[in-house]
């Protein structure tokens, strides 16, 4: 627990690993709270470097014991750091007060607010952004921490008012090298949304049962008057209801969902009729594509309605939602070809993203360009599932496997086998370790009307700037 600081000056906090998506967001919260903030990280590149630069605080490039000589009152250690890191060793040697990011957020931010944790294998960022947006437009002055760059707010985090809801992306990944509990374990939710529950993070969890146990432990912390809001359409999420000690509501397209949706697609948006406990609650124009995004919209609506937001306020706000960068994000158009960026990095997300793209841009030849980068997709754990997901495209490119040399070949994702299996299903596939080969092929073989869907949770080796010719 963070000590209560009684100082005649602003408390000092140093973020070691400040370039992490959640770390830079927390640094912004610290600035808003009046803390003296500094940080450090390895060399950063856009867009992360831009987000860190926008903080306007001193940030050291590279980790070094000297970065802590300014005597911070607390050091927040990012979960990418481990023993052997120069700052980690200095913190331990000097017996400085150190905490994980979730611990710092819990004690400095969440204790004075009403935490709304958006959890699940998929859809967390979009749902967190949309929930924050709806509550903001309804005048609740929420705080939030979004694991991406929202288009509807200038920054990915803000404090909001004390006593107001605070919407936070509840990640099941571990908190720090010294705390292997899931981040969301620290977030004390008054409301917890669970969008989905599938196997992921193979470097942390041995199987899906272990992930489910982490969710169950989080649910035990919801007060009795609080809420678990779970997706009724997905057994992994819906099955958590029996482990809740709080009130429970479900959402989705299932007939028994407490917040039930009926949807029709109209061009690039959908019309979503929402029923609450069987009674029509609202009709919404949702500027998002794909069934998964409509489920995300229902989750956000369920939170808003539970917190007392009226249907009219949701109906007015929903059509103007601009979403989050790297979620079905059109980043380039040239010669009649549309290039779309998406963060999908799990086979279910890949499948649903392709389906969403086909719904939004019907009739186009769809190129799926995938970078195996997450700690699970670089391995053979999802070999079959990735193949099945990519088979929904017309053309497929698989890029270099991140950190391939650190993965035994027998455990590594077999791109050649995927391409061969796609060929049997009449889907043309290729793979390469050279990003420029992919770009050259795209530019030479795409034709007007084609849609290129790029799916990566990283930088894809500069592929985006190469496509733009920069």
Describe the structure.
- The chain folds into 3 domains: 90 residues, Rossmann fold (3-Layer(aba) Sandwich); 212 residues, Mur-like, catalytic domain (UDP-N-acetylmuramoyl-L-alanine:D-glutamate ligase, 3-Layer(aba) Sandwich), CATH 3.40.1190.10; 139 residues, Protein-Tyrosine Phosphatase, Chain A (Alpha-Beta Complex), CATH 3.90.190.
- Helices cover 29% and strands 24% of the residues.
- Helix 6 links the parallel strand 12 and strand 13.
- Helix 5 crosses helix 8 and helix 10 runs parallel beside helix 11.
- It is globular.
Structural class by secondary-structure content: alpha/beta
CATH architecture of the largest domain: 3-Layer(aba) Sandwich
Fraction of residues in helix: 25-40%
**Strand percentage, roughly?**
15-25%
The whole-number mean of residue pLDDT values reads: 92
* Ends apart, CA distance between termini: 47 Å
């Amino acid at each position: 627990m963070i000590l209560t600081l009684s100082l005649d000056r602003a408390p000092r906090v140093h973020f070691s690993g400040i370039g992490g998506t959640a770390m830079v967001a927390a640094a912004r919260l610290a600035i808003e709270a009046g803390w003296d903030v500094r940080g450090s990280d390895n060399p950063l590149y856009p867009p992360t470097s831009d987000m860190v630069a926008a903080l306007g605080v001193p940030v050291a490039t590279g980790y070094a014991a000297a970065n802590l000589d300014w005597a911070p009152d607390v050091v927040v250690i990012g979960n990418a750091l481990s023993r052997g890191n120069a700052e980690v060793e200095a913190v331990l040697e000097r017996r400085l007060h150190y905490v994980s990011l979730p611990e710092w957020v819990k004690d400095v931010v969440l204790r004075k607010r009403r935490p709304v944790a958006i959890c699940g294998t998929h859809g967390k960022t979009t749902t967190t952004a949309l929930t924050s947006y709806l509550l903001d437009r309804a005048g609740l002055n929420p705080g939030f921490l979004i694991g991406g760059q929202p288009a509807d707010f200038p920054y990915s985090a803000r404090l909001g008012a004390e006593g107001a809801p605070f919407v936070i992306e509840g990640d099941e990944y571990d908190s720090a090298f010294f705390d292997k509990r899931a981040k969301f374990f620290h977030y004390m939710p008054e409301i917890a949304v669970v969008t989905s529950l599938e196997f992921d993070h193979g470097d942390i969890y041995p199987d899906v049962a272990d992930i489910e146990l982490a969710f169950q432990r989080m649910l035990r912390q919801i007060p009795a008057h609080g809420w678990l809001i779970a997706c009724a359409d997905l057994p992994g999420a819906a099955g958590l209801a029996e482990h809740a000690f709080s009130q429970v509501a479900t959402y989705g397209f299932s007939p028994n969902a407490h917040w039930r949706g009926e949807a029709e697609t109209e061009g690039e948006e959908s019309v979503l009729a929402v029923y609450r406990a069987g009674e029509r609650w609202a009709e919404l124009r949702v500027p998002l594509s794909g069934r998964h995004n409509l489920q995300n919209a229902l989750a956000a609506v369920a939170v808003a309605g539970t917190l007392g937001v009226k249907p009219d306020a949701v109906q007015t706000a929903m059509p103007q939602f601009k979403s989050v960068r790297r979620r079905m994000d059109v980043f380039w158009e040239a010669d009649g070809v549309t290039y779309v960026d998406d963060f999908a990095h799990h086979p279910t997300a890949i499948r649903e993203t392709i389906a969403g793209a086909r719904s939004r841009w019907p009739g186009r030849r769809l190129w799926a360009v995938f970078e195996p980068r997450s700690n699970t997709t670089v391995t053979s754990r999802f070999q079959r599932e990735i193949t099945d997901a990519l088979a929904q495209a017309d053309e497929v490119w698989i890029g270099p496997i991140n950190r391939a040399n650190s993965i035994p070949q027998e455990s590594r994702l077999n791109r050649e086998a995927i391409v061969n299996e796609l060929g049997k299903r009449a889907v043309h596939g290729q793979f390469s370790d050279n990003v420029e080969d992919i770009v050259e092929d795209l530019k030479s073989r795409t034709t007007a009307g084609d849609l290129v869907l790029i799916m990566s949770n990283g930088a894809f080796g500069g592929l985006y700037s190469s496509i733009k010719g920069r």
